[in-house]
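Quick start: what a row looks like.
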Amino acid sequence: MLNKPHPSASQLKKTTLGRLMNLDTLLDAVSNPYSALAGVIATIGTFVVDSLGSGTIVLLSLTVLILVVGVFREASKAAIYEQGAIPLPIVINVSSATQSQSALDALFNIIERDHRFRKHGDNLAQHLKILREDLIHEYRGNIHDIERLKLFLQFTRRDLERLKTQPSTDTIFHLAYIGPASVGILIGTLLGLDGIVIYQFNKTSKSYYPVIEVRDRRLKENIYSYQKFKLQKPQPTQPRATVAIDVSSHKLNLNEPSIKNYGDLIYIKSLTMGTIKPEEDWTQYCREVFATLNNAQRHYQEIQLVYSMPVALAISIGIAARNYWNIWLTNYDPKTGHYCHLMKLNDIQYYS
């Protein structure tokens, strides 16, 4: 569970004492900074003791004390990484020139603000054998190369499942996605319904911030009224419909023929002028989109989805919708102004 509490101080103390007897912990302690400090003090102290002719007991006691502190700190750190929920920063980059490593560094910096996870990258490698390269997933091809994109999605799901099950404790994915919203929805379909924090990039501050915590089925909870969108929908008259999601500063062109001539138009427009603010309830946005899609797929044989929205919202919609509905995802082509079909949600199959 995402909100699973970390061990209490008493629990950690008991576990730490057990770890003190663990050979791996003792070996880790040999290479920590406290051991190095003890070595320096012992070396310099030896010369001082020799010159003074006394102080051997004091030097030995101080050296042993520093070593014991080092061992205890290693045991405490190991206990943290064997209990509770461990945050795993994940970067998925799809056909973007943005540096994935910079995004990963940003996620690590956010996680390491919690004192329990200082030097988190080093600790993941040391205690869980998870390396930084295991946390980055990149697709460098053309997103319209559908078969290749499907393989990427399938392999990414497999790799993420391995990361989830690799530690003996629970993990929380801290996800930063870089790429088009269309594939962002597909990325969402390969994720589970809990243990995920989704981040959005702020172009103004050039920083990432968490906007959605995925827990249980909260993204799919029923709504009784629209709080974030204004809904416009006709009585169904055609077998096909476009669901248009407008929640960004870049507005949709609803008069474009690929929308206008497709079928009925269901339009949900954000009540705010621009994009979603960080402090808003992003989960409610997802619920209202999901409810709109769920209702539409009951009345139409085929749906195409067009959108202008943040990628974090796109991922949450994919998590909620999964890969079951006959819904076309589209990708806007700035050269032609068309909303081109990319892939249907139910075109991608995942295998355990």
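That is the whole record. Residues 1-30 have pLDDT under 50 and may be disordered. The longest helix spans residues 56-80.
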